[in-house]
Each structure stands twice: as C-alpha cells, then as structure tokens.
Amino acid sequence: MYNIKSFKIKSSPVILGIESSCDETAAAVISGRKLLSSEIISSAAEQSVYGGVVPEIASRAHTEAVDEVVTRALKSANVALSDIDAVAVTYGAGLLGALLVGLSFAKGLAYSLNIPLVAVNHIRGHLAAAYLVAEDLKPPFITLLASGGHTAVLHTLTYTDFEVLGETCDDAAGEAFDKVARVLGLAYPGGVNVERLARDGQNTVKLPSALVKNATCMQFSYSGLKTAVINAVHHAEQKGEVLNKPNIACSFQHAAIDPLVKKTVECAKSRNVSTVTAGGGVIANGYLRDALTKACQKAGLRCVLPEKRYCTDNAAMIAAEGLTQYLCGNFASLDINAAARIPLKK
To answer: What is the pLDDT of residues 280-289, one digit of tens each?
Structure first.
C-alpha cells in the first residue's frame, strides 16, 4: 500500500528528476547535491517548423521519449531503479498535456518502487539550479529570476522561503525576447537568436528601459519595450529604410537586461548579502551573464550562475529542488494533478 506518511527521510538520497513542461523531455539523477547524470531529448527542431511550441506535438514527443530519457539518465549515472530513493517531477507550470506525460510516468515509478513522489514547481526548479554549480551554496542570497513566464528579483531567505523584492508587472523577459525574435524574422527558439544577432550590432536605437519609473515598488515592464521594438521595425519598413536588425537586437538586449543587473546588485547591497545567484532560461544569455558577473565583481559580491544547459529546461534542476522538498518531507500523493499555472511562491 502506497502511504506517504510511512516513508523515512534519508540524509543523502538518490533522486531521479523528470521534466516535461514544454518541449524538452528530460531526466537526471542526483546523489545528495552531487549531479550524476542529466539527459535531454528535445522536440525543438520539430517545433521550429511552426515558429513555436505546438502543445499536441510536444505531448506526443514526450510520450515517445520519456521512457528512453529516464533509461539514459539511469545508465549514465550507473544507478539502478532499485537505488532510487525518490522521484521528483515537474507538476507545473507548463503545458498541461506535456506535464501529464512526465507526471504520470513519475507516479507509476514511485508506486511500483514504493518510494516518495516529490512534486516540483518548475520555477522553483530554475531557482535551485544554482545549487548544481556550487554545492556549498547556502541562503541567504539574492536571486535574479528571468524566464519565459517570470521575471523577478528575490531575496532567498532559506532553502524554501524567499521574499519578492521586485517583479514584472506585465510580460516576462523571456517572452519579450521571443516576440522580438519573431518581428525580426528570426527562427525559434527566439532568445538565443536575438543574442547571436546582437553580437554584430551596437546599442544605438533609443528604446524604453524595462525598469518602471516612479513605481511605488521595484517593477519591470517588458510590454512597452516589446511594442517599441515592433514600432521601430514597422516604421522603418513603411519608410522603405534599410533595417539594421543587429542594432535593434543589441539595443533591445541592453534595455531588457541592464536594469535587471543593476537592480539585482542594488538589492544585494541593501539586504547586506554577499552572494547573488540567478535562474531561468534568460540567464543563458551571454550578455546578461557577463554583465551580472562584472557588476558583482565590482561590488565585491560572489556571483553563482548555473551552467547554460541548466538555465534552460532540464531535469537536473528539478532533482535539485526535489532534494530540498524531500528533506522537508514534502511528499505528494498519487492523486496530484498537473497545473498549467502555479503561483511563484507555491
């Protein structure tokens, strides 16, 4: 009989992580804070034909790949199913059909092995990615979260609690990168292609900053910035002018990222913490990584950034957050359902 109250917590468990929230089917194995393996099977190439993620295609791809990717992760880690102490899986936020594939597979494993199922908030997984690169990392610290669905500066107080110091009031940074990529005629995934184009450009196009001025609290806004880029492109086209796409990409990148870096460092100083971390797909952006690292060095702060491959969707970060929840005894029942949206703090 599967009874979550009967499970005992081990101090250094072996955890299998599973991620299927969007177009990456991923599995990873950790032992304590040590990462043993991380495998990904992506349907991004198939999705790029349509200019973005098609939920039905993503769900089918996950169904075909989930067993294989888990098998790969176990083999790479040299771990047998009988060695697994818990299964951590993304239950939200994301595409419902895609989430259900990974969640259903994880439920089946947990039940068959009679081990705890740990349900992980995808965004908290991004925040936990920093633990993969620095096993000695301990709160408190400031975390910059920048992804396709969230943009915020957080005061990470403990392994499980954080204070939101500032966040976007509309679109997220990652969403803005994708929209700008489309208007510039760049292929999916958009963010990485905007970054590549920006390397050949200069910050010469006047665009609004992503930081909201005169706000009662620290807020960011990417809706206006995104619209300004669209207008600049359309005006140039209407006038028959030659569009300097690299300059637009470079200027957008500065307007989107510079305020995040500045405010993150300012928050670290105001909260008197010595470490800054970051998580989310946008943290894979090379300009952001360089700018944040240099700003932290100038301010005398330690900067802990996950490897780029652990900024985008992956199961290693899910396993890392799964460990935190496991040690707290936060086990999920087998009737837990997937959720397309989850509050940042849940």
So the answer is: 999 999 999 9
Residue 321 carries which side chain, given as an amino acid letter?
E
Find residue 86's DSSP bridge partners.
15
| Residue recorded with tokens 């957050």 | 321
pLDDT averaged per 10 residues, the chain (length 346): 90 97 96 96 81 86 97 98 98 96 98 98 96 94 95 96 95 95 91 96 95 81 94 87 92 97 97 97 97 98 97 97 97 96 82
Residue type, 331: F
CATH number assigned to the domain covering 4-128+314-327? 3.30.420.40
Q: Where in the chain is the domain with CATH 3.30.420.40?
A: 4-128+314-327, 139-310
Measuring CA to CA, which residue among 69, 138, 124 is closest to residue 319? 124
pLDDT value at residue 129: 97
Helix/strand/coil for 9: coil
Q: Which residue has the tokens 């957008």?
A: 252
Three-state SS at 160: coil
CA distance linking residue 121 with residue 147, whole number of Å: 14
pLDDT digits (tens, 9 = 90+) for 78-110: 999 999 999 999 999 999 999 999 999 999 999
What is the C-alpha to C-alpha distance for residues 174 and 284, in angstroms, rounded to an integer?
11
What is the dihedral sign for C-alpha 50, 51, 55, 61?
A: positive
Which stretches of 125-214 are assigned E, i.e. beta strand? 141-146, 151-156, 162-168
DSSP states of 16-31:
EEEE-SSSEEEEEEEE
Could you name the CATH architecture of 139-310? 2-Layer Sandwich (3.30)
* CB neighbourhood size of 35 (10 A): 21
Q: b/e per residue, 167-182, with b = 16+ CB within 10 A? A: bbebbbbbbbbbbbbe
Both tokens assigned to 185: 């005629």
Residue 306 φ then ψ, to 5°: -65, 155
**Do the strands 14-19 and 218-220 form a parallel or antiparallel pair, or are they unpaired?**
unpaired
